[in-house]
Amino acid sequence: MHTEFFDLGPAQGRTIFVLPVPYDGTASYGKGTRLGPEALFTASVQIESYDAEMDLDLGDLAHFTPLTPVHPPSEGPEPLHEAMRGRLAEFDASTDFILTLGGEHSVPLPLFEFYKAAHPDLVILHIDAHADLRQSYGDTPYSHACIMARARQLGIPLAQIGIRSLCREQRDFMRAQPKGELLTMFAWDLPTPCDAAERVRSFIGNRPLYVSFDVDGMDPGVIPGTGTPEPGGIQYAWMTRFWKELWLEGAGPRLVGMDMCELAPIPGSQVSETAAVKLIQRILTSWLGQGQ
Ligand SMILES: [Mn+2]
Description:
alpha/beta; Arginase, Chain A; eight-stranded parallel β-sheet; two-stranded antiparallel ribbon; 9 helices; 10 strands; binds manganese (II) ion
């Protein structure tokens, strides 16, 4: 694993801990997300830290402290989650910002628990093609297809963007959620980025925010390197504009942590990891640079 995430020069601004979790044990179709963290590290040092549209440089706002990867000690998601909980015990959820790099989308459950314990009113913003609201899949409630059902079980309100693949059971689950606990923006009915940001801001209010980003929420034309691709996803310009709008003029929510999951690099192509890393950059730049 590389020691540098982005190429930023002297350490300035907010400390971002980077936690690589190279795991694809429950992946149900294409494998390879265990290679995601390494690809994201490699791509990160190739892109400009200056975001020309924002007129902000990530290097002025943040510096990254990579952590050693958490490897699954044995088969199944539960031992991985236990290993992650052990690692997270070294950190303080009320102050430490952890950027988790998956790995598949079963990975961030311990992060949800970690931040929820310190921030009881935590809200998750979930970017994904899949609703991930199955109660169980492949004989485990900890599958990547169930991660947001587990978040709801923890009592965490959920805003979802880009959803376009779900079963009837999940639609019924969505409809049964108490008012104010679930906001789903389906991919076929996306508002403008500005309107979406407004809706998400009013859903979150003053509560702390965790972003859980499955790269397959993006259109496969933008990020083809993922295990369970779905056509008709979010376009790059929409997504980058959304983050910019979310924190426009300092009006946006307080971000406490985030993850980027489900990147499965395609050998010989750097398209997917480059787009994913640029989205991480845009999220952090929009949040940390708000009001500047
Ligand atoms: Mn997904």
